[in-house]
Write a structure and sequence with these properties.
Layout: H1 2-28, H2 33-57, H3 64-85, H4 99-123, H5 129-151, H6 157-181, H7 191-216, H8 226-242, H9 249-273, H10 281-326, E1 328-332, E2 339-343, E3 345-348, E4 355-358
Antiparallel strand pairs: 1-2, 3-4
Helix pairs in contact: 1-2, 2-3, 3-4, 4-5, 5-6, 6-7, 6-8, 7-8, 8-9, 9-10
Amino acid sequence: MRMRKTLIRVVLGALALAAVGGVIGVLFGRGDLGGKVVGTAILAGVAAGLCLPLAKMTANDTTRWAGLFGIAAVIIEFLLILTLIWEMWDIFSHVYDLEEPVAITAGCWAISAMAVVICLWLMRLPAGRVAGLVGLAWTAVGTVIWLVPAWRDFGSYSVENQWWETAGAMLGFGLLLLLNMAGIGEPPTTGRRYAWRWVGVAATLLGLAVALVIIWGDMLDDETWVYPATVAAFLAHANLLLHIPARGGMWWVRLGSSLAMLLTMVLVATLVYFEGRIVDDDMVGRMTGAAAVLAACGTLAVLIHHQMNRSMKKQADSAAALGTDFGKVPMTCPHCQTTLHVPAGDSRCGHCGLHIHIQLREPRCPECDYLLYMFKGSACPECGATLEVSPPAAGPVAS
């Protein structure tokens, strides 16, 4: 809690410093000093803001290592960008121009660190342990490939471009590999699902191999890599949806999303294969975009519906556990005045039959869900949100 409160104060302080520095820089500044101060303040605010959810992740056993690494990555990124804002690398300008390599490194580190956080989180899940390990290794290789042309002068733009294109291929196919490997390592529900994953993995690796041959063979007009990539993308999407339970109407939404994704990939492959030979390629392109929109919206609907159901189930389980922990609530029947001990939930008076419903809820902040047992204040101690204070229940009346 202290860490989060400190980070919130840093964010607010950085925004205030950015505002004050901006005003002073505009009114009285000379040169770009004011801009550097404002840039530093905004950078500090963004870094602290990113650390807020990461700090929350450290409180959970499943996400602790991902959160700790994320905080360390944000600090490193902050320092790299800070050196660029204040032009600290100019002192080496007479030897080597470091500003551009450092800027590329900062961009590379941001993307790679995000991938590592995701992989560390996946490694703590039964369905993502293998995918997380492979993702870490893949990220390490891709990062090295990205940084090689940034720090080494090949003396040829074409060679440097090949390295950049290789890094891009590693990034795109790495995402497909991660999605296709989700679930490998846990007992499969059916053999068919397990086979789909390996077909997707094989299609991903084949697409990457073809892309590398095209890149390093200077076959720029060859788009053969698209065909295995479309297969890998469809199977990755199907593998993702198979991990999301869907019942009733959402089962049909999930099926429709898969079919829309299949249609999208078929149309993409068709556009590539018949490039320049289709009478109305504009219409095919529009159909491809429409199918992609349907697939994306359907997938988001399934994800959101699943997340909402999880939240509702968590609240129901919490309420049930709360009722069990507190046992029975002593009360007097308002109809017949019989003394009762009523459990949480639905029950009835054993004397007169009056139906009684008892609901117990933990006191939590509506903004951050912070537990507020025994707290008497009007503002959440975690996030500072204003609390709606309910009137306390009346105590026993003295006879």
